[in-house]
Amino acid sequence: MFAEKFQPAPAKPVSPHMQRLRDIVTRRQQLVQLRTAEKNRLQQTTDAEVTASLLTIIQTLNKMVASITRSMIALIRQYAEWRRKLAILQAVDGIGAVTAAVLIADMEELGHVGRKQIAALAGVAPFDRQSGKWRGKSFCSGGRKSVRTVLYMATLTAVRRDGPLKAFYEKLVHAGKPRKLALNAAMRRFLVILNAIMRASMNPA
Fold first, then answer.
1. Mind listing the pLDDT tens digit for each residue in 151-203?
2. Can you list the positions of beta strands (E) in 124-185?
3. Which residue in 15, 97, 106, 156 has the fewest CB atoms around it within 10 Å?
4. Angle, nearest 10°, between helix axes 97-106 and 80-90?
5. How many CA atoms lie within 13 A of 166 on its CB side?
6. Cα→Cα distances 23→20, 47, 108, 147, 148, Å
7. Distance (Å, whole) CA 1 – CA 198
8. What would the pLDDT profile of 140-149 be if each residue is shown by its tens digit?
9. How many whole angstroms separate alpha carbon 65 and alpha carbon 60?
10. Can you give the residue ranges of every domain in the chain?
11. Pairing of the two strands 130-131 and 134-135
12. CA 37 to CA 57: how far, in whole Å?
């Protein structure tokens, strides 16, 4: 009944090489999370044996993260469309190879949808809480966590450098917006910019 009423568009099958890229990106994120957890434990101990154990694991994870990062970039460079996307994204200040790789893997819609949709897909679009006449504060939720994570780090870098994104962020802060909300707005602005750049570069007039 749902399908008859709403006529949803069929999902596009994921190609084997895209699935491999997504698996590698996911595994890299898992390794980074494990490394972060071990680093946090390192800060909480003074025992020499425990410290030695943690350092050994952290060093091993460093090597694994470096290795899988090389595999991730090498896979992207095997395909012309991905190589082009990688070059376009890395040309943007604040976007490194890892951020670009995550966007290629987990945000295929970049450059193909509107600004509101791309922000919603990443979970950085504000939604109003409303019930009848009651209206609460807007909030952001849902979206693709992997994209939001790398976008957060890229935006942190961008707002610390002179440029339009820093000016946008500081304008919001000076207007009284909490820094966390201002940063989320900057993330949304950054993603919209990336979406426009990708659309213009991949589909020139």
1. 999 999 999 988 899 999 999 999 999 999 999 999 999 999 999 999 998 77
2. 130-131, 134-135
3. 15
4. 130
5. 9
6. 5, 37, 15, 15, 18
7. 37
8. 445 789 999 9
9. 9
10. 14-78, 80-130+138-205
11. antiparallel
12. 11
